[in-house]
Amino acid sequence: MNFDYTEEQTLLENMVTSFVRDDYDWDTRCSIVKTEEGWKEENWKKFAELGLLGVPFEEDHGGLGGEATDIMIVMEQFGKGLVVEPYMPSIILAGGLISKLGSADQKNSIIPEIISGNKRYVFAYAEPQSRFDLFDVKCSANLDGDNYIINGFKSVVFGAGMATHLIISARTEGDQRSKSGITLFLVDIKSDGITLQNYPTIDEYRASEVVIENLSVSKENILGELGNSYEAIEEQVDLSTIAICSEAVGILQVLKDSTNDYCKNRKQFGQPISANQAIQHRLVDMMIEYEQAKSILYMAITADLSNPNERRKAASAAKARIGKAIKFVGENAIQLHGGMGVVDEYMISHFFKRATMIGILFGNVDFHMKRYIDLTQSDIQSINEDDGINLS
Amino acid sequence: MDTAFSNEDLKFQSDVREFISNNYPKELKDSIGTKRKTGKELSRDDLMSWHKILGKHNGWSAPGWPKQYGGAEFSPTQKYIFEQECARAECQYIMPFGVNMVGPVIYTFGNDEQKAKHLPGILSGDVFWCQGYSEPGSGSDLASLKTSAVKEGDHYIVNGQKTWTTLAQHADWIFCLVRTNPDAEKPQQGISFLLIDMKTPGITVRPIKLMDGSHEVNETWFDNVKVPVENLIGQENMGWTYAKFLLAHERSGIAGVARSKKALERIKQIASAEMSYGEPLIQDPAFKSKIANAELELNSLEYTELRTLAKDSAGKGPGPESSLLKIKGTDIQQMVTELAMEAVGYYANPHLGTTLSNEYVGPDYATNLSGSYFNFRKASIYGGSNEIQRNIIAKMVLGL
User: Fold this and answer.
1) Is residue A384 part of a domain?
2) For chain A, what is the domain count?
């Protein structure tokens, strides 16, 4: 049993750490989020040069064949720098769907383009009424000759404004909330029938509302089987959930360490505020929450993610628990920074905002608690069948 | 990263499981089971007989001790597995006072005679130890202790009072912190570590009843108790060093993850039998949510403990992180005892097993669950209160 990184993983961590330190210092980050585009394409090229865009992809397609731990390493460090380039939406989520469902031809043509940084896909799945239910899809795709005609509306699509392509989930059959009948389509973002409304998010990332009107997509651009994509969507969203949990753990570390430093330096009544036990115990509780968050992330990373039920449980356990840690560490970081906590100018509020938005992404605490409870119902059955404890 | 057990670990796990299933006495299980159902106190035999069996098997009664002192010298992973298997089979706990507390002090700081005299009895479970640390005026501020030991010839004369002496009613020996130099510059500097035979004239043990009615702790009085100087551990006035060493050992394993897991399983079973709103309680969304919440805390803590163990394996030793395990571990124990009490509804009320109640009422599984809830309020107080643990982390980890 060990929680050590391999030599390659240590190198990967060092590489991402130096990128964040050298190319993504706070002032640089602030200037990036103020630009029209809201990201820096040069950074994407740099990611390509460093091999970061290939981390989760198979070696056959030029990737690094990385696993959950490798993704965690990248995301945790990106979290520490609040890196806004759309790595998770494009590489982990959309990239994961293409790897999972793509035909040999699709993978051969698309994945190398993603790894080289020439193409960025993002996944448009959420709809105004769907909240966190991935199967709630109104957006429709109807066959017309050899093409599907897609109509619908996709909400809060992260990174769409930076993407070259979209993966759109649309219903080819079944009711709005049926798990079967969901099909994925690969489309060029410049296609006729796609209108983007781009906007900044409260944490200074970028997202878009996507209006799809009579978008015509050839059958060849279906990703995966017709009407049978739900399982893959759920799987890739679970893995992306674990990825953003890693980002959150990186952010929580910054929140906790910065608050610690701030309290040691901020003097009131002639002494550092960290001399007060009320403050000390709060800082200790923040540290404990951080450690517990990191621990449940490790549990998720080392779970058997190839087993669907274990994967679902791991993702929901981690997201629910880390969601609580985000609230505790984040709100207390602001509180202990006092006035400096509530201003836009100082970096701490930005980390708090990002962490809070991660808390919502792919389902908040309540959503994942409920999912976790539903998933563990079967465990209760098996306990009752176990004769280990005599209840008589 | 790899949390899978190696083949050797898996082999060890099945060995432990097999050993427990072949050797854990049915009479002991029945005796403890009956007493739990009827709210009766455990006897010295109940407390020690499993220890005695383990003591005859490759030092398994002392998982962390080095082989040279007769211990099992388990790796951290093996310790974890061993603890898990014992909890799984609901084995009686090994009393910590000998094995986890005074034992390591003796083999680390004691002389050869002391090792030869005391370690075998601790290992075999024949000698029952108790801890003489706290005093009425010295709780969290342990170094303010007043029990005095004055050297007269080849004896110390000990006078004073210890309190919260857990299970002193069964004890053969007590290890004590005593003040040998009342004039030392700092209170920590005048303390010594003495081993005292409980049969020595002048020692009086008086029970303290806890709020659940249990007799677990005592007051121990010393009135001109003559203790041979050869019972001094290490050097005179250096006792604080040994005391701190012991406290760090005491905290390791204090998380009690495996036991809390078992307790949660039991609560789920109880909640499947109890009804609420016409359905098994386990279907109640509010109750389910509390269970899930406890489970997530426990999962996190388990991995925090595994991370600490992995650091231990790498030879980095248990550090102030053990304070974190103590805080969260006892939080969860309290959460779990509360959930169990909550699960049985009205049957939390009856106080069975007292001299006033010969009849047993309600389901067996409900007996004493409220007692456990009340009893476990102690967990966040003992072993250094959770506030003191926070002070330790603030100073040692966060550098505040």
Assistant:
1) no
2) 3
